[in-house]
Design goal:
single chain, about 325 residues, GMP Synthetase, Chain A, domain 3, Rossmann fold, 2 domains, three-stranded mixed beta sheet, elongated, binds adenosine-5'-triphosphate, Mrp/NBP35_ATP-bd, nucleotide-binding
Length: about 325
Amino acid sequence: MNEGENPAAIEARLRAAMPEQIERRVQSVRLANGRAIIVADAGDLRPQEREVLEVAYKQALADLEGVEEVRVALTADRKRIRIIAIGSGKGGVGKSTLTSNIAVALAKSGHKVGVIDGDIYGPSQPKLLATENRKPEAQGDKLIPLESPHGVKVLSMGHLVAPGKALAWRGPMAGKALGQLVDADWGDTDLLLIDLPPGTGDVQISMMADSKPDGAVLVSTPQDLALIDAARAGQLFEQGEVPIIGLVENMAGYECPHCGEVSDPFGHGGVEKFAKALEIPFLGRVPLTLDIRQSGDAGKPPAASDGESAEPFNAIAKRLAAWLRGEEF
Ligand SMILES: Nc1ncnc2c1ncn2[C@@H]1O[C@H](COP(=O)(O)OP(=O)(O)OP(=O)(O)O)[C@@H](O)[C@H]1O
């Protein structure tokens, strides 16, 4: 061992000596008096696989400088990842845009966030999170999510199926495909946001049954029609006993880039009033801006910036984080 090597450097050196597939399971590894102590997650492994894993750690570190003995503690309790579904009754209200930006805002505040694009028929997260034309690898029967450039992991049917291919799928098949994305190897992710397809069909119902979300966020524009659809999506979550965390109003207020006048193409404040009437918390309002649209198309979520356009997403992320901690917001 190098004299003066600090614990973080030692941990990095020990981890670097391990093959990636076993390194990703390590919760902690330290070296004290020639003894390397590894704590690793083996909650999903059968007894025989656990033995193989233990031997693999011992072999990986055996010849390392300063290591005389290797001890391995395998934990059975896999950390449960919390799941939040982002839904809307109506399509095109900005659910995918919100999902990617809220994910990035939560990641900026220290959460380890993954995004699942549940919109099997019209996936948009590969573009929004700049992972288009990339293919996730598989480890055994588990997919390895892609790392987006914005600190968020992501998996979408758009990464797996050629554009337009999934369109022919029927509900149960689409539901199964979504289950595969949820069951991927999310590593140290602590929160998954699922961008649901619009509507209240088979995919949503099967997701509710298979990977019950901890809570749901509903997105709507201030328009009456979108609100009615949001109410329908709300009922779906209630029937599935998924708590509704709150409502987000998107595309509220458009500021003319030429004259500065603010107009409300889809109305204003409707979602907040609606939320009050239904006694659902209001999570925040996102304006309609050219920047949000253009940044989305360019795979650069405004939430990743320090600019003003990140603020509405930061505010919503803050309320979600409070909800996750069980606090009032
Ligand atoms: N606040 C906003 N300001 C400007 N454009 C927005 C805003 N929110 C979303 N958009 C744009 O509206 C379009 C639809 O958004 P998005 O794909 O996020 O909606 P969606 O509800 O997920 O749609 P779908 O139902 O098709 O999955 C996109 O072009 C997006 O860039």
